[in-house]
Amino acid sequence: MAMVLRLISGAVLLAILGGCSGVFFYPMKPWAQNPARQGLDYQDVVLIQPDGLRLHGWWLPARGFNRGTVYFLHGNAENISTHLINVQWLPARGYNVFLLDYRGYGLSEGDPDLPGALADVQLGLDWLSHSGRLQGKPLVLFGQSLGGALGVDVLADPANQGKVNCVMLEATFASYRGVADDVMRRSWLLWPLRWAVLPTLPAPALDPAGNIAALAPRPLLLLHSHQDPVIPYAQGEALFAAAAEPKTFQALKGGHAQGTRDPAVQQRLLDFLDHSGCMAEAPEQPGMAEPAQPGMPTPRHRGVDSENASGDADALRAPAEAYRF
Question: Which member of 67, 69, 293, 324 lies 3.0 to 4.6 Å from 96 by CB, making a disulfide possible if both were Cys?
């Protein structure tokens, strides 16, 4: 993660001249892969903002019985093609996944900034709410790092009450200025410039810690690694302390926003969804199939059949007592 810190440090230097929320965004335009490379069915989704700006995302349909939908918000660097690894396991476990690139990332048009990214997250939520793809099943917001901060701010809006059933946040910070201050303190070059840069960053009114209590009564799972080299563990603790019940904190080990690459952590998330009422129950009658999801075009790639997908899911399952955190 030394590279990530260098990128953030470089962006902070630019903020000295620019003085804007762009310090938190480091987009990448080219794709590293698409879902077909991972054996996943997918559809491209294009959303259009009122000003005509086009956003791009991927819809990954669930394999077999549809247990719900996960709205995935990635961190501040690269694009959905590199963050796909964090959610590519969910379709085999019965969840649709919608991944959205904020403006300036991947195929999404425009230049990134905080107000724009918040508007993009809102547009994605509105599309999910009105697309007919949810089919009355639970909607889960899963945000990592900056994506979690964006999700908290959007869901705190009273107009979004009831649109999301459960929230999962990994490696999300409590304060924009607080996490930038921590990064600058680690650099002898940036440390003396903190007084000039920090006041230009997003105001405390936008901090996740100030808005996260408004997510209640949605069940909240907050995960953070003790060894996170980008967002200090103390930031995760502070965010959890500011949240209202019902809430659960899960400490992890390993790098920044990499927890879901561990099958045991994957199972931890599934257990949370099950216990929180965000996992639709499969029909009891054997062989009973669900109706096709409305508006679903032919997948760009044919994945493994449902029988093989079920076998893959069983192979990934870890017993509850074997969580490797």
Answer: 69
The neighbour count for residue 83, using CB atoms within 10 Å, is 24
Strand boundaries in the chain, DSSP class E: 26-27, 43-48, 54-60, 68-73, 77-78, 95-100, 139-144, 166-170, 220-225, 247-252
Would residue 179 count as lying in a domain? no
Which among 178, 163, 182 has a CA at the least distance from the CA of 210?
Answer: 178
Q: Residue 290 above 90 pLDDT?
A: no
Residue 131 lies in a domain: yes
- Spatial separation of the C-alpha atoms in residues 193 and 264, rounded to whole Å: 42
For residue 145, give every residue at least 6 positions away whose Cβ sits within 8 Å of its Cβ, in sequence order, or none. Answer: 74, 75, 76, 170, 171, 172, 173, 230, 231, 256, 257
Token digits of residue 214: 């408004």
CATH of the domain at 45: 3.40.50.1820
d(CA 56, CA 92): 23
Instruction: Look up the pTM and report it.
Output: 0.82
C-alpha closest to that of 247 among 279, 267, 275: 275
Of 124-128, 190-194, 269-273, minimum mean pLDDT range: 190-194
Q: How many CB atoms lie within 10 A of CB 44?
A: 12
Residue 267 lies in a domain: yes
Q: Which domain, by its residues, includes 101?
A: 26-174+202-279+300-319
CA 22, 110, 158, 250 torsion: positive or negative? negative
CA–CA separation, 301 and 60 (whole Å): 10
Q: Collapse the DSSP code of 209 into the 3-class scheme (helix H, G, I; strand E, B; otherwise coil) and give the result.
A: helix
Query: pLDDT tens digits for 138-168?
Result: 999 999 999 999 999 999 999 999 999 999 9
